[in-house]
Sequence to fold (214 residues):
Amino acid sequence: MEIPLCPSCQLSRQLGGSFLWHMNTAPVSSTGPIFSSKPIEPQSVISSSNQENKMKKSIIAASLLLAGAGAFLTASAQQQEPTPEQLAVSATETRQGVFKLLSYNMGAISGMARGTVEFDAAIAERNANRIAMLAPMIPELFAARDTRAFTVETEALPLIWDSMDEFNQKAVNLVNAANTFAEIARAGDRTATTAAVRAFGGACGNCHETFRVD
Ligand code: HEC
Fold:
């Protein structure tokens, strides 16, 4: 029969020690916690000299401390470990954050085309460069976590994870469109720049049509 060990002994054994000498005197129970609230009375296992008593007491104290530390570490490790649901929620929020940034940078550019934002070729170019930098995060984040099995607030269609190549290609198209637009804006011509906005924005809509809830 496997004799259950008290937490101190278990820990000592894991650490390579052998503090098993009080085993028979420990209040062993097969159902409840063997070492619940009341630690073993050191007196019950100590019979020899004072010197030895002191040593055994400090060994008990040390192993109790170790057991406590072990339990604490286990508890805090459990607390810090996110559940798969929490990971899915976090992954969804992160990718939506990227889309918010894309949208923020695109907002000024399309505003310039509509005439609601003052034309500034340098800002148009800068924002397009930012979009080219951010867009590769789309495939990265969707590949990192498939959230289909979880209840998350999302407009991402499940189809994405069945058609990763096509989805990723649309992100590459966006990078190319952003680079092309940035080059046009760099030349500084207002008419040419605003005329290029529709094609640039089309790279966003082209993915939404297939992969995002309407
Ligand atoms: C490769 C596909 C793809 C491309 C390219 C793309 N999007 Fe999206 N977009 C999505 C998907 C999928 C979602 C839904 C994300 C979710 O809810 O989990 C989304 C969501 C959004 C959202 C909503 C974010 C939120 O707050 O939840 C905005 C805004 C957005 N996209 C703007 C843009 C803009 C602007 C561009 C172009 C600069 C763009 N997207 C390019 C696929 C794409």
